[in-house]
Structures are given as C-alpha cells and as structure tokens.
Specification:
By secondary structure, the protein is mainly alpha-helical. It contains five helices and two strands, in the order αααααββ. Helix 2 crosses helix 4 (46-55), helix 3 crosses helix 4 and helix 3 (35-42) packs across helix 5 (60-72).
C-alpha cells in the first residue's frame, strides 16, 4: 500500500472512531442545519441521518460522508467532547 493510500486509510479509521451520533446532532445545531439539510449536503438519505443519530448505526461510507461534510464546514471531532471549530484552509489571519 502506498504511503498516500495508507494515510487516507488511517484518516478514515480515525474519523470512524471519533465521529459519533451525538457529534452529528450537536454539529447540526451549531450550523443551524436540520437532518434534511445534513443529508442533502452529505449526499445521503435523510433516513440514514435519522438512523445514525437515533441508533448510532450506519455503514462506514455513510458515517464518513457525514463526518467529512461537517468537517468541510470547519468543525472538528474528538471523543468525549462536543464538536469544535477548527482551522479552515481558507481562513485568513486578521491583522
């Protein structure tokens, strides 16, 4: 496995273990998004968001789609903590 492929694999495994159903619901509230909004932005079915946030169970592909979409909005996720605002690539330093 190439180092780039390995890096991508490791990143996906970290996301799968750090991103929880509670994170999803909290992140939506921070963004002012409904479950329908998140589903549309992530390209998944509304039922998938409902299932994940209700039961915490969806396939890895769906969980990654949700996590990556919320991360694209500047949110970061760590086990045991509410989502936080991270540094966005397009953020500019003031001053």
């Amino acid at each position: 496995m190439s180092s780039l492929a390995m890096s991508s694999f490791v990143e996906q495994q970290i996301v799968l273990h750090q991103f929880t159903a509670k994170h999803s619901a909290q992140a939506r509230l921070m963004l002012g998004w409904s479950r329908e909004d998140l589903a549309r932005h992530a390209g998944v079915a509304v039922e998938s968001v409902q299932q994940f946030e209700g039961l915490g169970e969806v396939d890895d592909k769906t969980r990654l789609a949700l996590a990556f979409r919320l991360e694209a909005e500047g949110l970061v996720f760590f086990p045991g903590f509410a989502p936080g605002w991270g540094m966005r690539a397009d953020a500019r330093c003031a001053g």
